[in-house]
Structures are given as C-alpha cells and as structure tokens.
Amino acid sequence: MKHKLLVLLILLLGLNLSAEELAPVEPAVASTGVVVPAAPVADGLAFAAPEAEAASLKDGYALLNELLTLFENIPIVKVKKTPENEAKISPGLVELDKRLSQLGVDSKAALEAGLIDKIFFYRYRRLLMHYKLIIMPVVRSELFKELFQRAFDDFTWNVTYEHWSWEDKDGIAKMAAATEEEFVQMMIYLDTRQKREELKKKIGKRMLPPPPARKKSEEKKPE
pLDDT at position 110, please? Predict the structure, then answer.
C-alpha cells in the first residue's frame, strides 16, 4: 500500500499539469523531489471549489473507501496550449476537488446521523484538507509556500512524528508514509469500536487517583 500511495501522491503533485495543457511555470522548489507545479490563476485564487451534490449517508468504512478510490476514472484531457486555454484548470484537478468537497458533505451527514463519532469525523476532515492542499497548485509568486510548509509539516508530525520540508529529498516518501499511517489508524479505530468501549469501562475508574476520604466532621449530621 505504501508504494501505491507514493505513486498516487507523485501523480497528484503533477496531475494533468503538462506543458501541453498549461503555460511553463517555475516549480515551488526546484531543488527537491517534491514539486508542486504552479497553475495559471485568476484573481489570485488557484481554483474555486465546485458545489457539492446532496449528501448521501455513508458509514466510516465507506467514507475511507471513497477516499482510497479518489483517483479512479480521473479525466485526463490533453489540450494543446493556446492563448485561449492557457488559464484553464486541469479537468483532473477540478474533478478531484469536486470529489473531496462531496466527501466533506457526506462525512458531515454521517456525523449528524450517528454513523461516525466526532473523533473519526475530525480526523477524516483533516485527511480531506490534506488532500485538498496536495492537489491545490501553488501560485507562481509562491506566496502560499510557507502556508503549505506548515500544513504538510503539521500533518506528518502529528501522524508519524517526522518533520516535513520542501527541501527534504525524501519529502514525498514522508508524506506517503504519514498518509498511509493515518488510513491504517482510522481503519483500526473503526474495527476496534466495541473493544475500546469495553476497555474504557475497565480503566475508567483506575486511571485517576481516588477522591480523598471524607473526614468524620464533614459527614452529614443527622437532623
């Protein structure tokens, strides 16, 4: 699975942003293996999130599976570069963004329906945000470089306790490992739901010291 994730992340970082589609631009950091191409943008925005469809109820397993199959049937359209289409966003990126937005709607509906709990919901939401940042092209001026740096570093550190930087030669591998680990942990979280509830009952009264004994003088006197 790690190899598959690594390949997918590499594809994400350059998905459909070929020279035939977009104008040649400078990569965010030319000295690293992690290259996030910059896409031509309008009004300073990478691309606008498309409107999501109506929510469909999915449990935690279905939500994770939808995210694991995110890259299936992505449209790859080769468009010859012309002044008219230079500023157009890759159809693949638009489709990925639409799918992620829909999963955000579906996960919220699952939470409201009681199919997932808050812990799973917010971890899943963080994973969606992580993917959103991966597919979002960095603007040519690199104004968002530090924002992306903090977000990717926070994610990898919180999951695998590895710091991430644009300058890391193994940056893609670190990100792939952290993403894989998060998927595994969230799947285990679903698998162990009943076991965790049983353990909570066993350790709930033992993890904190007992309350201090009441003095006789503090005991309630009979009326």
Answer: 96
Compute φ and ψ for 42, nearest 5 degrees: -120, 135
Domain boundaries, position 194 = 2-204
Q: Is the dihedral of CA 19, 22, 26, 156 positive or negative?
A: negative
Q: What is the pLDDT of residue 146?
A: 86
Q: What is the pTM of this model?
A: 0.69
Question: Residue 61: inside a domain, yes or no?
Answer: yes
The domain total for the chain is 1
The span from the CA of 105 to the CA of 25, in Å, is 34
Q: What is the dihedral of CA 18, 36, 120, 195, to 10 degrees?
A: 90
Average pLDDT over residues 27-41: 33
CB atoms within 10 A of CB 27: 17
C-alpha 106: how far from its chain's center? 15
Is position 138 within any domain?
yes
209 belongs to a structural domain = no
Cα Rg of the chain (Å, integer): 23
Give the closest residue to 103 by CA, choosing from 66, 150, 143, 140.
66
pLDDT: which is higher, 81 or 12: 81
Cβ pair 175, 162 in contact under 8 A: no
